[in-house]
Amino acid sequence: MTDTMKHIVLASRPDGAPTAANFRLEESAVPTPGDGEVLVRVHYMSLDPYMRGRMDDAKSYAAPVPIGGTMEGGAVGEVIASNSPNFKPGDFAFGMFGWATHGVQPAKMLRKVDPAQAPITTSLGVLGMPGFTGWQGLMEYGRPKAGETLVVAAATGPVGSMVGQIAKAHGLRVVGIAGGADKCATAKDHFGFDECLDHRAYPDAKSLSAALKEACPKGIDIYFENVGGKVLEAVIPLMNPFGRIPICGMIAWYNAGGLGANAAEQALTAPKLWRTILVNFLSVNGFIISNHWANFPNFLKEVAPKVADGSIAVQEDITEGLENAPQAFMDLLTGGNNGKAIVKVI
User: Fold this and answer.
1) pLDDT grade, residue 153 (50/70/90)?
2) 189-213 pLDDT tens trace
3) Rounded CA separation 47/61 (Å)
4) Residues 179-206, buried b or exposed e (16+ Cβ, 10 A)?
5) CA 13, CA 245: separation in Å to the nearest integer?
6) Could you tell me which residues come within 8 angstroms of residue 291 by beta carbon, excluding any fewer than 6 positions away?
7) Does this model's pTM top 0.85?
8) Minimal CA–CA distance to 94: which of 113, 108, 107, 80?
């Protein structure tokens, strides 16, 4: 076993969109696991939009990554040393090891991954936090009913694709919004959406809203919010009475800084938004998936067999090499990925 590891640290806080200068690749000694801890050699690590928020020094539900600290993130790899009876060398485990080739975590913070059940990469996406986020947010806050219409943006990402596929299984009409004709084709042909609109083909919210109206002739009952921005502005006028909006993310605003708080004011003003919520009796629920981990076993029980038999489709976008993680992450924030963004570390 090598004595050194590599990890990517936050070199500086971004002013707007991250750049390569905000990251730094460093080497250090491989950590030694303490009592009850496990050392893992990372095979794959996850890239997720929430990581952009961790780069800002702003008040949030989680602490920011400190300058010089390893970038935060989930990863899966092989156990190479264990001081816990629950893990042995050769096991595979998921944990918050960060952007690194190795990591140590308490065994109680890890989840054992069975490569015989599904490829270990699925623990980062469809059978991990993103897939669980889509399933939990839709079922608890979307409350889908057969015959309704659902709209979800970032439709081919791991959250959006889960939302769409679960909604279809419950008998809803599913309309996706994605960035590019190829992604829209993926949403329909691979994930089974009824329709998908390329938001880049519409110069403003008004024209996108007109296209959405055609795609959703009965209005919109559920809008699963992943992006904010122009898409939110286009959707709001089409919401049906008693509609539901689970708020998962606002990726269109993240690069403005301040966890989106520094985004420029748009045409959808607060009075217009709040009035629409009021007169249409809308339910708007923000949620953070870390508050729902007790339900994760139920998610796996329902969804893992569907992934195994192919009734839940999977798409992964894998970048090779830890050193390429910053560029892959920057691409993710501008829609450059097609599927779950993952970095192959070895």
Assistant:
1) very high
2) 999 999 999 999 999 999 999 999 9
3) 19
4) bbeebbebbbeebbbbbbbbbeebeebe
5) 32
6) none
7) yes
8) 113
